[in-house]
Each structure stands twice: as structure tokens, then as C-alpha cells.
Amino acid sequence: MIVRCPNCGQKVEIRGLGRKPLNIPLRNVCESLQAHCNVAIAAKELNCSQGYIFGVLKANGLKIKDVLKCKTN
Predict the structure, then answer these.
(1) Counting C-beta atoms within 10 Å of the first and last residue's C-beta, which end of the chain has fewer, N or C?
(2) Alpha helices of the chain — where are they, by DSSP H?
(3) Could you give the 3-state DSSP secondary structure of residue 41?
């Protein structure tokens, strides 16, 4: 990103703005989902959002029902 310096008026390039991306492996996401059978709890454990979990699954061609194999009474 290039911005104008408020002191001298020169154009200055700024790097490193924004949050660094999370790189949680698919394996960790799947294991956490299978252990807890709940997206919200898995997201808390992995310290990410529920949307991130759905995004990782979608990027790998999976859906939540493909990963969750929990016992339902």
C-alpha cells in the first residue's frame, strides 16, 4: 500500500497491514470436529471462527456431514 507521508509529502510504501492468515491443517480441523461433534466447540478449541472451519472444508471439497460421524440418540 502506498500512502503520502503527512510530514514530508513523499509517497511511502507500507507493508504488513492486516491480520496474518490462519494456517490450520485440514487434519486438525477434522479431528477436532470428530472429537467434539460441534462446530462451535471445535472453533473455540482451534482458536478460529466457525466460518473458517466451513471455509477449510469447502476448499477441500468436503461438507460438515462428511466429517461428522457422531452418535445421535
Answers:
(1) C
(2) 26-36, 39-46, 50-59, 64-67
(3) helix
Dihedral angle computed from the Cα positions of residues 61, 63, 69 and 71, in that order, rounded to the nearest 10 degrees: 180
**What is the residue type of 27?**
R
Model pLDDT for residues 12-32, shown as the tens digit of each residue: 888 877 788 899 999 999 999
pTM recorded for the entire structure? 0.71
CA–CA gap between residue 24 and residue 42 (Å, rounded): 12
Confidence tier at 5 by pLDDT (50, 70, 90): confident
Spatial distance between the Cα atoms of 54 and 62, rounded to a whole number of angstroms = 9
Residue 42's nearest CA partner among 27, 56, 32 is 32
Record the cell numbers describing residue 46, joined without a space: 482451534
